[in-house]
From TrEMBL:
Residues 51-189 form the Nudix hydrolase domain. It holds the Pfam family NUDIX. It comes from the Bacteria. It catalyses: ADP-D-ribose + H2O = D-ribose 5-phosphate + AMP + 2 H(+). PANTHER family: ADP-RIBOSE PYROPHOSPHATASE (PTHR11839:SF5), UDP/ADP-SUGAR PYROPHOSPHATASE (PTHR11839). Its EC number is 3.6.1.13. Acts on ADP-mannose and ADP-glucose as well as ADP-ribose. Prevents glycogen biosynthesis. The reaction catalyzed by this enzyme is a limiting step of the gluconeogenic process. This is ADP-ribose pyrophosphatase. It comes from Metapseudomonas resinovorans (Pseudomonas resinovorans). Keywords: Hydrolase, Magnesium, Metal-binding. InterPro entries: NDP_pyrophosphatase, NUDIX_hydrolase-like_dom_sf, NUDIX_hydrolase_CS, NUDIX_hydrolase_dom. Its cofactor is Mg(2+). Belongs to the Nudix hydrolase family. NudF subfamily. NCBIfam families: nudix-type nucleoside diphosphatase, YffH/AdpP family.
């Protein structure tokens, strides 16, 4: 296996850090130096950092029926770049309180899809955009009973208007192959489930 850089305690020096914007999210500007692969300390560089709460994303899956539950909602980041800014995606939420990721997954499943998750299977954790954001995503598969799932949900006080879709797994994978599912968490979770479906159904049915 290829060895990667193992930083010591002095590998990064923060010369200056200032907050440029503070709202629900925060934007910081950092001036820093870091150790080079040669072992020398590099020059001072400047980077803007989008400071976000860590996120939790969960793909609700009904192993009895072999179907997944996706949600559809407006996403401002896709506005002007996609044919439609209403995206099909996972149930998701931010860890903005003193909560464990599993608690967030279960809470958001109720709020966004009116679903109770009876088990959670950790898939992975990852940085979606580490070049400019410190957000880390906790990705799960959640066991659910999809019978009766559907409708429009979400918290009105948070401006949420969320429609629930129940899809056979093969149909969801086809949408991904066609490019109609184009957000990272959804693609990662569906690909993981496609690879691990037999094991998951064996343990969850």
């Amino acid at each position: 296996m290829t060895e990667t850089f193992k930083p010591g305690p002095d590998a990064v020096e923060i010369v200056e850090r200032e907050t440029c914007f503070q709202g629900f999210y925060r934007l910081d500007r950092l001036s820093l130096r870091h150790r080079l692969f040669s072992g020398d300390m590099g020059p001072v560089i400047h980077r803007e950092l989008f400071v976000r709460h860590d996120a939790v994303c969960v793909l609700p899956y009904d192993p009895q029926r072999d179907v997944v539950v996706l949600i559809e909602q407006f996403r401002v980041g896709a506005y002007g770049k996609s044919e439609s800014p209403w995206l099909l995606e996972l149930v998701a939420g931010l860890i903005d309180k003193d909560e464990e990721p599993e608690e967030v997954a279960r809470r958001e499943a109720v709020e966004e899809a009116d679903l109770q998750l009876t088990s959670l299977w950790p898939i992975t954790t990852y940085y979606p955009s580490p070049g400019g954001s410190n957000e880390r995503v906790h990705l799960y598969l959640g066991r659910c009973d999809s019978r009766g799932a559907g409708g429009v949900h979400g918290l009105a006080e948070e401006g949420e208007d969320i429609r629930v879709h129940v899809l056979p797994l093969e149909d969801a994978l086809a949408l991904m192959r066609e490019g109609r599912l184009d957000n990272a968490a959804t693609m990662l979770a569906l690909q993981w489930l496609a690879l691990n479906r037999t094991e998951v159904r064996g343990l969850w049915t």
